[in-house]
């Protein structure tokens, strides 16, 4: 009997891993919504999913925004021109920035789990353009539901 339980546990673990998705985000100098953007600029993903930030055009990185992470989430920081994959396990809202282009509003929002996007707490201390982009993302996503 114990071997059956071990096999069932292993099967459950492999099934969970198989259900996790990898989402791709491009880092761009210019995209459909303007200059200095991530495409897409918003993702709603499940806990355990991975986001692959693709260095599509030069001079960009992807990094978590201090003060815009769920409690218990690990911050991350990719290098300039580096493709980076990040697994998001902790439910909540993650503000993502391109460090050299934060003031130009190069940000994106990742929602992990099912909380309404209207609950995202955008830090008031962000540069104006970054804060405005986050507000636009939240408004656009909220009005779509």
TrEMBL record:
<keyword id="KW-0479">Metal-binding</keyword>
<dbReference type="InterPro" id="IPR000923">
    <property type="entry name" value="BlueCu_1"/>
</dbReference>
<dbReference type="InterPro" id="IPR008972">
    <property type="entry name" value="Cupredoxin"/>
</dbReference>
<feature type="binding site">
    <location>
        <position position="60"/>
    </location>
    <ligand>
        <name>Cu cation</name>
    </ligand>
</feature>
<feature type="binding site">
    <location>
        <position position="98"/>
    </location>
    <ligand>
        <name>Cu cation</name>
    </ligand>
</feature>
<dbReference type="InterPro" id="IPR002386">
    <property type="entry name" value="Amicyanin/Pseudoazurin"/>
</dbReference>
<dbReference type="InterPro" id="IPR001235">
    <property type="entry name" value="Copper_blue_Plastocyanin"/>
</dbReference>
<dbReference type="GO" id="GO:0005507">
    <property type="term" value="F:copper ion binding"/>
</dbReference>
<feature type="signal peptide">
    <location>
        <begin position="1"/>
        <end position="20"/>
    </location>
</feature>
<keyword id="KW-0249">Electron transport</keyword>
<keyword id="KW-0732">Signal</keyword>
<feature type="domain" description="Blue (type 1) copper">
    <location>
        <begin position="26"/>
        <end position="112"/>
    </location>
</feature>
<protein>
    <recommendedName>
        <fullName>Pseudoazurin</fullName>
    </recommendedName>
</protein>
<dbReference type="InterPro" id="IPR012745">
    <property type="entry name" value="Pseudoazurin"/>
</dbReference>
<keyword id="KW-0813">Transport</keyword>
<dbReference type="Pfam" id="PF00127">
    <property type="entry name" value="Copper-bind"/>
</dbReference>
<keyword id="KW-0186">Copper</keyword>
<feature type="binding site">
    <location>
        <position position="101"/>
    </location>
    <ligand>
        <name>Cu cation</name>
    </ligand>
</feature>
<dbReference type="GO" id="GO:0042597">
    <property type="term" value="C:periplasmic space"/>
</dbReference>
<dbReference type="GO" id="GO:0009055">
    <property type="term" value="F:electron transfer activity"/>
</dbReference>
<feature type="binding site">
    <location>
        <position position="106"/>
    </location>
    <ligand>
        <name>Cu cation</name>
    </ligand>
</feature>
<keyword id="KW-0574">Periplasm</keyword>
């Amino acid at each position: 009997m114990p071997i059956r339980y071990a096999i069932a546990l292993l099967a459950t673990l492999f099934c969970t891993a198989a259900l996790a998705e990898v989402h791709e985000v491009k880092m761009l100098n210019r995209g459909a919504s303007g200059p200095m953007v991530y495409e897409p600029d918003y993702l709603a993903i499940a806990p355990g999913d991975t986001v692959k930030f693709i260095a599509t055009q030069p001079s960009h990185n992807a990094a978590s925004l201090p003060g815009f992470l769920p409690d218990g989430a690990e911050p991350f920081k990719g290098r300039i021109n580096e493709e980076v994959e990040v697994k998001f396990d902790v439910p909540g809202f993650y503000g993502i920035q391109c460090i050299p282009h934060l003031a130009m509003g190069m940000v994106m929002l990742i929602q992990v789990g099912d909380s309404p996007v209207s609950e995202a707490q955008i830090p008031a201390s962000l540069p104006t353009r970054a804060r405005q982009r986050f507000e636009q993302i939240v408004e656009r996503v909220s009005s779509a539901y």
